[in-house]
Amino acid sequence: MNSLNSEAFTLFGQHILWSDMIGNLFGLAALALGWRRSLWTWPVQFLAGLILFGAFFGHLTGSAGKQAVVMVVALYGWWQWQRGKGRGEDGHIAVRFATWTERAVMLGAAAAGTVGVALLFTAYPTLSWDPWPDAYIFVGTVVAMYAQARGMVEFWFAWLLVDLVGVPLNFANGYAFSGFVYVIYGALVLWGMRDWWLRSRNGARPVLEGAPA
Question: In terms of pTM, does the model score above 0.85?
Fold first, then answer.
């Protein structure tokens, strides 16, 4: 796995690591599959986490631990979408807006989780290279994946909030490829948000008797 942490190439003066490139490309593919509401989004997300876990394990314990949590959430997402409940008429997962209670719970969990993880990273500096922003991105990613697993349109809003911090943070810390990928994430998030938003409205609209499906 040490080869994953070797340099792949240099871009605009930034050294791109194989682990950074491969893991983020799989993450990008997982997001695109999530937009299409494909069940394959979860295995691809799990594989991205597995690659980064292998790259970080042994020398970046905090980063490896974060990827382990991502893999667990990916397994939950696979199980949730595989169950069949809430599927749309087209055979894919049905999407919806979260209730106000669900939004409050996710916001509360995100806030408390960010503070808790940031304090942990601060107490153990070897776990993170930038405790508070790193905790925000990590917890935001988990919340976004949870919302995606539940078929909530808010999944895209959570990803957008992660992107707003992830792009400058990755560039500032030398993870140029991650920064570029987060920019592409932003574009996919906007398209995916529009698609899921429209599908949620169509799904909530009653079908009149005799009207074409």
Answer: no
